[in-house]
Specification:
Blueprint: H1 2-7, E1 20-21, E2 26-30, E3 35-39, H2 56-63, H3 72-82, H4 84-87, E4 90-95, H5 96-105, E5 109-110, H6 112-115, E6 121-122, E7 127-128, H7 130-136, E8 145-146, E9 152-155, H8 158-164, E10 171-173, E11 176-177, H9 178-185, E12 193-195, E13 203-207, E14 219-222, E15 229-233, H10 238-248
Parallel strand pairs: 1-11, 5-8
Antiparallel strand pairs: 2-3, 2-4, 6-7, 9-10, 12-13, 13-15, 14-15
């Protein structure tokens, strides 16, 4: 697809490449650096262990969300329980958008707006949490270094650049979660509310000061802009329902 797009854009100079992706999908990397298994957001293999996770209040205070099978830690926990042979291969994991930059540069990172979805990231302090790793029984060594959106982490691999017909060195820039970058594209500022209409419909408020949701009805997400967070509610698979209605009628 990249080669096809570039073939139709010969008059355009590519001066940088970035990426985005669904938020709760991850890719597992083995000890040789090979990406060997992808788990999309609809992978619910951890669902049967949701109620076994202790310290749910601690998880919510640290991550801004209650532990469910939607998030990466439960996916990994389910893999560890049911397919230990695959779990033994896991050296690290990353988001789909960060996996793209890894494939382009060979440099493995995790961007904070994506790390928010792992249940292993302290959304208040914007750091990986050893405490959360302990709750799920993971070694912190499976977590790549955090790199902010907008950071140029390297250049497109020379062999890939040649295959694509790119001239000169092309920087690869860390992207972020699809919802965060959709919000970013609107030029919204703190206290604005943005509705992102996609497969689901996140309803987002941008904030600069964190306030805990006592009723635990909203998620707290890290934004791609440092010092900003997104409070999110979501009515679910609205986009898929619209598609279904369109097909029927």
């Amino acid at each position: 697809l990249a080669k096809r797009a570039l073939a139709h854009s010969k008059a355009i100079d590519i001066i940088g490449i970035t990426s985005t992706s669904q938020r709760q999908g991850i890719v597992l990397i083995d000890k040789k650096g090979t990406s060997f298994l992808g788990l999309p957001n609809i992978d619910n293999r951890g669902r049967e262990w949701e109620e076994e996770i202790e310290l749910k209040e601690v998880v919510y205070r640290r991550t801004g969300r209650l532990p469910t099978a939607l998030f990466s830690a439960l996916k990994l926990y389910g893999l560890k329980q049911r397919q230990p042979s695959l779990w033994k291969q896991v050296s690290q994991f990353t988001s789909i958008s960060d996996w793209i930059t890894y494939k382009l540069t060979g440099i493995l990172t995790y961007e904070p707006s994506q790390a928010t979805e792992t249940l292993l990231f302290d959304v208040n302090q914007n750091i990986w949490s050893e405490e959360l790793c302990g709750i799920f029984g993971f070694s912190p060594s499976i977590l790549p270094r955090l790199v902010r959106a907008g950071t140029a982490i390297g250049e497109v691999d020379a062999q890939l650049a040649n295959e694509w017909g790119l001239s000169g060195s092309v920087p690869v820039i860390v992207g972020g979660g699809d919802t965060q970058l959709a919000v970013k594209s609107t030029d919204a500022v703190p206290e604005d509310i943005v509705i992102v209409s996609g497969t689901t419909t996140p309803i987002i408020k941008i904030i600069q000061d964190i306030q805990e949701d006592g009723q635990k009805q909203a998620w707290l997400n890290c934004h791609t802009d440092k010092g900003q967070w997104l409070v999110e509610t979501n009515p679910g698979i609205t986009g898929l329902n619209y598609q279904k209605l369109k097909t029927i009628f």
